[in-house]
Structures are given as C-alpha cells and as structure tokens.
Design brief:
- The protein is mostly helical.
- The chain contains three helices and no strands.
- α1 packs antiparallel against α2 and α2 packs antiparallel against α3.
- The mean pLDDT is 81.
Length: 121
C-alpha cells in the first residue's frame, strides 16, 4: 500500500470518529432534560469530535500536497475556550436556580460560588 492510500484511510477514520462523537453530542443534547446534563454532552464529546474532524482536514490537505496549519490554531482555541465557556454557563445555571443546587460540601464553608445574600433567601 502506498502512503496516499494509508493517508486516505486515516482521513476516513478521523471523519468517522469525528462524526460519531458529534452525533453522540447531538443525541445527548436532545435527550437530556436538565440544563446541566444537557451542557455536559456537547462540551465533553463535541470537543473531541471537532478535534477529530480538524485532524481529518489536516490529513486531507497534506494528501493534496498543501500544508494547512490553520486547523491547529482552531483546535487550540477550541480546547481552551470550550471548558471555560461551559464553566461560565454552569455557574449561571446554578446562580439562577434553573437546576438542582449542588450538595453542600462536608467541611468547607467557603466552597461555593453560590453564596447568596441573606435577603435573597
């Protein structure tokens, strides 16, 4: 087998992995009822799926004899910003009371971001 055929197989495998992870993320997003569990599916699974699709894009451009490293920048940006935005969305859901309040910690009174003023309670 030549390197071109192996590269084509690698691109196909990355496309299948990426689309599989993206499909699982979509199903999780549609299936879960609670906003916090609904947030979990696309952020955890979708990041890996998009990463695999970007690796397929890099492989395809290398098969064509071109070098395209824009995908690495996109991947780095995605891997840095996705967890941070998910954390902010989760904190907003907790503060708005949209979801179930997390359990109190056992021995830590300064734990939470959920410290509400007394007049709000």
């Amino acid at each position: 087998m030549s390197m071109e055929i192996l590269g084509t197989y690698a691109v196909a495998i990355f496309l299948l992995i990426g689309s599989g992870f993206a499909a699982v993320a979509v199903i999780g997003l549609l299936k879960f009822n609670d906003p916090m569990t609904r947030l979990h599916a696309p952020t955890k699974v979708g990041t890996i799926g998009i990463g695999a699709l970007l690796l397929a894009s890099i492989g395809h451009s290398m098969l064509l004899g071109e070098t395209s490293m824009h995908e690495l920048l996109i991947m780095g940006f995605l891997f840095v910003t996705a967890p941070i935005s998910a954390n902010f969305i989760a904190k907003v859901n907790i503060h708005l009371g949209v979801c179930e309040t997390p359990p109190a910690p056992q021995r830590d009174v300064t734990w939470a971001t959920l410290k509400r003023p007394e007049e709000d309670i």
